[in-house]
Write a structure and sequence with these properties.
Elements lengths: L5 H13 L8 H23 L13 H18 L4 H15 L17
Helix pairs in contact: 1-3, 2-3
Length: 116
């Protein structure tokens, strides 16, 4: 299967949404949905890695499935607000590579003092 770029994923989600009369929900409605999906992800993480095991009556879901839901809703929100997620990602990585370059102990042993 060919790897998808974020641009392709954003277009695919837009094509899906455009087939419905309601189109995109309001940003506040989308935020509520994103919060719901993140809660479901947290629940799955707790079931797999935490102390709270699933009840026998609960539907089997996976962390992968819930992460996919979070990604889908994130793309919906970005599309509705006209945000190019590739550009947003690139800006964030630049920020983290600058601001947090020495925040954690590095494998190469470099420290902020070495850069000066």
């Amino acid at each position: 299967m060919k790897q998808k770029t974020m641009k392709i994923m954003q277009q695919e989600v837009d094509d899906y949404i455009q087939q419905f009369k309601t189109g995109y929900f309001s940003p506040l409605g989308q935020m509520a949905r994103l919060t719901e999906e993140v809660g479901e992800l947290a629940r799955e993480i707790n079931h797999y890695y935490g102390e709270k095991s699933k009840k026998a009556s609960e539907q089997p879901k996976t962390v992968e499935e819930e992460l996919g839901d979070v990604l889908f809703v994130t793309i919906i929100m970005a599309n509705s607000l006209g945000i190019d997620l590739t550009e947003a990602f690139d800006r964030n990585m630049h920020k983290f590579n600058q601001r947090d370059r020495y925040r954690f102990e590095r494998k190469d042993g470099q420290t902020e003092g070495d850069a000066q």
